[in-house]
Specification:
Blueprint: H1 19-34, H2 37-58, H3 71-102, H4 106-109, H5 115-145, H6 152-176, H7 180-196, H8 209-215, H9 219-232, H10 239-263
């Protein structure tokens, strides 16, 4: 039997996983942000530094310790995680929306990639960008503030989970949005409020009971709180609980993204 006859139309000829296709998609997503590193890696460091300078000058001198640490040390992990999740979200969402607007999303849909392989390819780019941003900002905090992670493995786990969660959310938002203004609306009215109102700049223990309960429903709170524990060794909630909630939220959003890619929802029309 000839090589061609052995395969029917549509048969996957490369095993259960298209490793070459998955690697190529992940490489493309990584090169997207590495080629413009001044925007994707240097700019977040500058932004995080500006946040630290502004809060240190405006509030730091009059603000006492928070949870037993100086105020600048308290907000540093929150600023780090906020920057990580914003960049992970932007990496995946912008890639999909730009492809849809430019009409070349077909270049991603036509290759023999399953829904899971597409999710993993986009996820690799988002997590890589988030992890590099975290390393760069951590070095900046260490060299300028003398603030180094007390529990580096725990902090790394929450950084990866945070980047994965927002990468998944970025995929869902990118699939849903057809125009840049729709993506801007999702960023401004969903992602940014969730990041800012999650204990980034304050301890949730100081909130009124109702707001405290609402905050505990926000998965990003657990990501920031977990990163804070990894950095300074203290947090508002249990790191184990935070990891469980963040893992469940990440699994849920990645499942939604997988279903969208598998069905071609808002991609094949």
């Amino acid at each position: 039997m000839s090589e061609t006859a052995r395969y029917s139309q549509g048969t996957r000829r490369f095993g259960k996983v298209n490793w070459l296709g998955l690697y190529t998609l992940a490489q493309r997503e990584a090169l997207r942000f590495l080629n413009v590193w001044t925007q994707t890696l240097l700019a977040p460091l500058v932004t995080a530094g500006l946040f630290m300078v502004i809060f240190s000058i405006a509030i730091g001198p009059r603000r006492g310790d928070v949870m037993g640490v100086p105020f600048t040390h308290f907000i540093a992990p929150g600023i780090l995680m906020m920057t990580v999740i914003q960049n992970a979200f932007a990496n995946c969402s912008s890639s999909i929306v730009i492809s849809k607007v430019q009409g070349n999303i077909v270049d991603t849909l036509m290759p023999p990639l399953s829904g899971a392989e597409m999710v993993l390819g986009y996820l690799a780019g988002g997590v890589m960008r988030g992890a590099i941003v975290a390393v760069v900002i951590s070095l900046g905090f260490g060299l300028t503030l003398g603030l180094w992670p007390q529990h580096p493995l725990i902090m790394a786990g929450f950084v990866i989970l945070g980047a994965a969660f927002l990468s998944g959310l970025g995929m869902v938002a990118g699939v849903f949005a057809d125009k840049f203004d729709q993506m801007a609306a999702i960023t401004n009215f969903i992602v940014t409020p969730l990041a800012f109102l999650s204990g980034t700049f304050y301890s949730v223990s100081a909130l009124p009971p109702v707001l405290r309960e609402i905050t505990h429903v926000n998965p990003i709170f657990y990501l920031i709180d977990g990163a804070r524990y990894g950095m300074i060794g203290t947090s508002d909630s249990s790191p184990a609980l935070g990891f469980a909630v963040a893992f469940a939220a990440t699994a849920a959003i990645l499942t939604v993204a997988w279903l969208m890619f598998r069905s071609g929802y808002r991609l094949k029309n």
